[in-house]
Amino acid sequence: MYYLITVLLFIICILLVLIVLVQNSKGGGLASNFQSSNQIMGVRKTTDFLEKATWVLGGALLFLCVVGTAFIDRGTKEAGSQIKDQIEKAVDPNQVPSFPAPTSDAAKTKAPATAAPDSTKK
What we know:
Blueprint (H helix, E strand, L loop, with lengths): L1 H21 L20 H28 L10 H9 L14 H5 L14
């Protein structure tokens, strides 16, 4: 369903761009070429149609954007679970590091004492 809404959004966007480009601007635009006398719709009716089409397509674009958000795949996980996991696993930077206590083997083995060199002998 999401892909259908996305395709409809693209089609509406393309139609909206084309209709806006055809509309009569201050300087004339493409709609000024429709001023011939044998026209089925007059210039005023063409302008009204283009304006109504712009409003309808703009409304449809807005509606499909809002409806499209309902069909976005969000997965099955909770939204805040990853953040909550990171907070629980965070290390406090002010905490004093705890070093492992020496084992009984390290306590039994003592480093050999070294005698200081005797400076009185020459």
